[in-house]
Amino acid sequence: MKTDFEENSWVINYSPDNYYNRKFTITDDSVLSKGDKSITWINTYGLQYMDEFRQMVNGNNLDDFLLRLLLNQKMGNKVIELEDQLFIAARILKTEHDSMESEQMYFVVSKDFVWCIQEKWGDHFDWIRQRIFENKGIIRKKRADYLLFFILETLIANYKEKYEETVLMENALEAIVKQEPTPEFMFEVEQKKAIIQDFKKASHGLRDIIIKLERVEVKGFQTKYFSELREQISGLIMDIDSDIMELESQINLFFSMQGHRLNEVMKTLTIFSVVFIPLTFLAGIYGMNFDNMPELRLANGYFILLGVMLIVVLVTIIIFKRKKWF
Questions:
Q1: For residue 43, what is the DSSP state?
Q2: Edge to edge, what strands does the sheet with 9-14 contain?
Q3: Which residue ranges traverse the bilayer (predicted)?
Q4: H or E element that contains 81
Q5: Rounded CA separation 23/2 (Å)
Q6: Which of 98, 167, 183, 294 is 20–30 Å from 41 (CA)?
Q7: What's the half-sphere exposure (Cβ side, CA atoms, 13 Å) at 211?
Q8: Closest CA to 46 of 106, 129, 87
Q9: What is the pTM of this model?
Q10: Domain 4-257, CATH among 3.40.630.10, 3.90.1150.10, 3.20.19.10, 3.30.460.20
């Protein structure tokens, strides 16, 4: 009867000649270093198995400090050098779903094993496993540092693919100009900014890890692979920064366009007001019920007042035209 830890752990052991892939059995697979030219890759899904983690650490003569590190489930992004081992903590985005949740990942790495511990179930590493099973490329001829390189490269590729799928900046300028400043639209803008910031934070975390990996000095661990990863993640960060600037520019343009539209409306209303204010004034005067108003007894008084009103309107329009107010 397998324990919950064993049900949520897989082990792949491979060499240039062969491989095996099966669910983890703590009594048979607890030895990470086989003492030969093979590489062991263990995937564990879940951070709650501290008793089993302790058994793995003690059974493989790993640094006891690992247990303290594994207890901290909110570590963020760190690279810590231990004796002949490397501990990596990464806070990554789960790109499998639209919710864009984050999870904590840990890597315990030596020259001949990678122990990958994930907070949540699921990953994007099937293509790496397939290369191992089918002996494609040189992965089965390389050590554990090359496997770690592939894993980190997959995380970067997933970030880039999901980012391009989620944050579509193309043709956004035309769409944003036509939008109205409704609460729904502003919520969409803020949501988009939050997604971009999540990608930026996660990408910066990976870049910090990669930069530190370029500088580590662990026996049997080569750092030459990680320069390429630094270029990849730096390119993604540059794209994100560019999109942030573009989005901010579009938002500013959007509000400028809305302000311009509001000014045009206010201008039209002001013109109508200026035209009708003197007419209202004249109509108000002759609408008063005083007995001593000589103009009321004129036979053509009504038509004279209409003529005066027409002249006032024409003079006002001429003044507006000359000042190019419309």
A1: E
A2: 19-23, 9-14, 39-45, 113-118, 102-109, 85-93, 78-82
A3: 269-289, 301-320
A4: strand 78-82
A5: 9
A6: 98
A7: 9
A8: 106
A9: 0.75
A10: 3.30.460.20
